[in-house]
Amino acid sequence: NAGVTQTPKFQVLKTGQSMTLQCAQDMNHNSMYWYRQDPGMGLRLIYYSASEGTTDKGEVPNGYNVSRLNKREFSLRLESAAPSQTSVYFCASSELKGSDYGYTFGSGTRLTVV
Amino acid sequence: LAKTTQPISMDSYEGQEVNITCSHNNIATNDYITWYQQFPSQGPRFIIQGYKTKVTNEVASLFIPADRKSSTLSLPRVSLSDTAVYYCLVGDGVTGGGNKLTFGTGTQLKVEL
């Protein structure tokens, strides 16, 4: 059981380049999320998808777009990368089962924009 | 979403019990309290969740007083491998929009020999 898989694990971009971060989960969860974590900081929510076919903005959505391709996959796109987007990006999924709504996180994508 | 406040850092020694307290004065009736652990270069990992009183699992205990305005994560007999950042989160996730939990800066626990 892989859980949440993110690709790539590392990426270096030049300012202005675009790229898509991929995320897939095999737990049949309805909800998926993208967070970013800057050095020494907590996680900040970029976008989330409560269920297949829906997406909503989180705390820091500017400069990003997302696509909930199907129930398993949720991608994050940077259309024109900026140095301020240098960060570690985490994808997560969750399911509401009564009181149990813990998140399962991927191992992260470390992105550097130069 | 209820805001949480927890210490920035704590130090301990192997074999000791560690208690990390989180305050959440504006917790709502439907909110649960969830704790996560994060090691460097890894995503956070769910530790424990509770609504009221006490919850215990194989990893930790969670104590929640009757007014629910605070909670305490208790780690028994910590080891070096418990050195990590611990996040306290409050949210309901019941009323649609997904479970949009908000992570603060967490508590950096350092365990030494």
Write the topology of this structure.
The complex is a heterodimer of chains A (114) and B (113).
Chain A: E1 4-7, E2 10-13, E3 19-25, E4 31-37, E5 43-49, E6 56-57, E7 64-68, E8 74-78, E9 87-94, E10 103-105, E11 109-113
Parallel strand pairs in A: 2-11
Antiparallel strand pairs in A: 1-3, 3-8, 4-5, 4-9, 5-6, 7-8, 9-10, 9-11
Chain B: E1 9-13, E2 18-23, E3 32-38, E4 45-50, E5 53-56, E6 61-64, E7 70-75, E8 84-91, E9 107-112
Explain what you see.
The complex is a heterodimer of chains A (114) and B (113). Chain A is globular, with a radius of gyration of 13 Å. Chain A is an all-beta fold and 114 residues long. In chain A, 0% of the residues lie in helices and 50% in strands. Chain A has strands spanning 4-7, 10-13, 19-25, 31-37, 43-49, 56-57, 64-68, 74-78, 87-94, 103-105, 109-113. In chain A, strands 2, 4, 5, 6, 9, 10 and 11 form a 7-stranded mixed beta sheet that branches. In chain A, strands 1-3-8-7 form a 4-stranded antiparallel beta sheet, with no helix packed on it. With 113 residues, chain B is mainly β. In chain B, β3 (32-38) and β4 form a beta hairpin. Chain B is globular. The mean pLDDT of chain B is 89. Chain A binds chain B through residues 4, 30-31, 33, 35, 40-45, 48-51, 56, 58-59, 90, 92, 94, 96, 99-108, and chain B through 32, 34, 36, 41-46, 49, 51, 87, 93-94, 96-106.
